[in-house]
Amino acid sequence: MKKCPSNMIELMHNYLDEEISPEDELILREHLHECAKCSQHFNDLKKTVAFIQHSSHLVPSDDFTAKVMARLPKERKTVRLSRWLKKHPMITAASLFFALMMGSLFTTWNGEQQFSVSTKENVMIKGNTVIVPEGEVVNGDIVVRNGSIKIEGKVNGNVTVIHGEKHLASAGQVTGEIEEINEIFDWIWYNIKAVMKDTLKTFEPE
Amino acid sequence: MESLVKNRIKAIKKGDQNAYAEIVEIYKNKVYQLCYRMLGNRHEAEDVAQEAFIRAYINIHTYNPDMKFSSWLYRIATNLSIDRIRKKKPDFYLDAEVRGTDGLTMYSQLASTDASPEDTLESLELQEIVQKAILKLPEKYRSVIVLKYIEELSLQEISEILDLPVGTVKTRIHRGREALRKQLGHL
């Protein structure tokens, strides 16, 4: 029996890797045809590959992904926050609105340092003090900013003093509520009440 | 698919952990399979596969987007599996390389004689024999064979994953196939 060419095994593997030139393939085929030993070797190799390829595919446990995620190091806080915000657009919008509201209220609280009064009717103004003189009647609400009010006459309505003091003389009379606002929280509360009142008014029948 | 993965990786690099769950879902079967064939034990495979995903997440900043993400992930999984094999080696002497065979150990020289041809009709049994034969391969042949025949990757991809020249990958596949033939060819 003739000795097999030494490169036959290599050609077989090149064939299995699908990296064989047509000429080499022809040489291989011819040799396999006449050499039982090499033919057996080649068949065994092909069978081996088939066994490996057809080995069953296993799958990991169902909670594989959950387990991996649980073992990951904690992510950065900013990322968690931004994802949370994306998931809850309503809360985000509401809190943004609230923050802006608070901001604007705060600026108006600090910003308006000028004395002002809502009505000029039947009142006297002395410096930063509004006086409702004895015997005079003011119809409607009075709001005084950055000043004080002295009531000696009568007010048919509410009196509100922001950043100031109220002095009610014994003869003075106020039919509505009388309020002094000197703290930021009072100011916020006052604004909220004002908004609520306005809102309710719009719903009231004419 | 590749663009989805690229997109998710960008989100992960920014720190979005939830994007990583999608990546795990996409690759978990492949990675698990790779680890199982390398280790031959379901429990260990699960453990090493999880470890691979965690390593990939932690080192995501070292991932080079020019490389396929799967290749990078398989590299991590292969290396971790090999580390695990080395740690647990019980029969140290059997793994000593046989001189002149470039990495073939006593394992691959042992003929597998524990199965008679009748038994091989039993598919489950055959599975076991095949897995045992793979496990008898030294790591460097085992990894190329698993990547080629279980993961069905091209020589090019395997060369990228293992960071070896294509020629070396080819040689290892040839030797690995020969070693397997000695165990499985007669069935």
UniProtKB/TrEMBL annotation, chain A:
Protein name per its UniProtKB record: Anti-sigma-W factor RsiW
InterPro entries documented for this protein: Anti_sigma_zinc_sf (IPR041916), Znf_put (IPR027383)
Pfam families (UniProt xref): zf-HC2
Boundaries of every Putative zinc-finger domain copy: 10-38
Family designation: Belongs to the zinc-associated anti-sigma factor (ZAS) superfamily. Anti-sigma-W factor family.
Gene3D superfamilies linked: Anti-sigma factor, zinc-finger domain
TrEMBL record, chain B:
Record's keyword terms, sorted: DNA-binding, Sigma factor, Transcription, Transcription regulation
Database matches in PROSITE patterns: SIGMA70_ECF
Domain RNA polymerase sigma-70 region: 24-89
Domain RNA polymerase sigma factor 70 region 4 type: 128-180
Transmembrane intervals: none
A molecular-function term among this protein's GO annotations: DNA binding
Record CDD domains: Sigma70_r4 (cd06171)
InterPro entries the record matches: RNA_pol_sigma-70-like, RNA_pol_sigma-70_dom, RNA_pol_sigma-W_bacilli, RNA_pol_sigma70_ECF_CS, RNA_pol_sigma70_r2, RNA_pol_sigma70_r4_t2, RNA_pol_sigma_r2, RNA_pol_sigma_r3/r4-like
This protein's record includes keyword DNA-binding: yes
GO biological process, one term: response to stress
Entry coiled-coil feature ranges: none
Source domain of life: Bacteria
PANTHER family: RNA POLYMERASE ECF-TYPE SIGMA FACTO (PTHR43133), RNA POLYMERASE SIGMA FACTOR SIGV (PTHR43133:SF60)
Family: Belongs to the sigma-70 factor family. ECF subfamily.
NCBIfam families: PRK09641.1, sigma70-ECF, SigW_bacill
Protein name: RNA polymerase sigma factor
Organism expressing this protein natively: Paranoxybacillus vitaminiphilus
